[in-house]
């Protein structure tokens, strides 16, 4: 009768329908020495739980982590980057103050000639753009002839 009960409990166990008391009954049965021959295959399953309860963690856990070294290096790198940024900004400001007076001409005649050269260069570019607009107007006229607006 007890053997039939154990077989029924094993079926319920594998269908995940056992209660805690029934599982304890199975563990007690399989931890004893009088296990039926045809149920020996289930002994490691329930024996594992007893063995797992007896295991203890004995390794030591280091308290210091190595992540702090990376944080230190990261903060050093950030400090260097900030210092370089400030140095470049300061140097750039000083160089701009030295060259602020570039482009000014004291002689009015020389200034007039330089201005004429600059305006001539601008005029050439504008004339090229106007020439391109002539092509565009020819295209517009051809399009209007074809589509007759």
List the helices and strands and how they pair.
Blueprint: H1 2-14, H2 20-31, H3 43-54, H4 67-98, H5 108-147
Keywords:
mainly alpha; single chain; elongated; 149 residues; 5 helices
Compute the number of helices: 5
Oligomer: single chain
Kindly estimate the percentage of residues that lie in beta strands according to DSSP. under 5%
Summarize model confidence as the mean pLDDT: 80
Low-confidence stretches: none
The helicity comes to over 70%
Secondary-structure-based class equals mainly alpha
Largest sheet: none
Shape: elongated
Gap between N and C termini, in Å?
105 Å
Q: Give the tally of β-strands.
A: 0
Q: What is Rg?
A: 47 Å
Helices and strands, in N-to-C order?
HHHHH
Explain how this protein is built.
- The structure is a single chain.
- This protein is an all-alpha fold.
- Helix content is 73%, strand content 0%.
- It is built from five helices and no strands.
- Helix 2 (20-31) packs across helix 3 (43-54).
- The model has no long low-confidence stretch (mean pLDDT 80).
Concise synopsis of the structure shown:
With 149 residues, this protein is mainly alpha-helical.
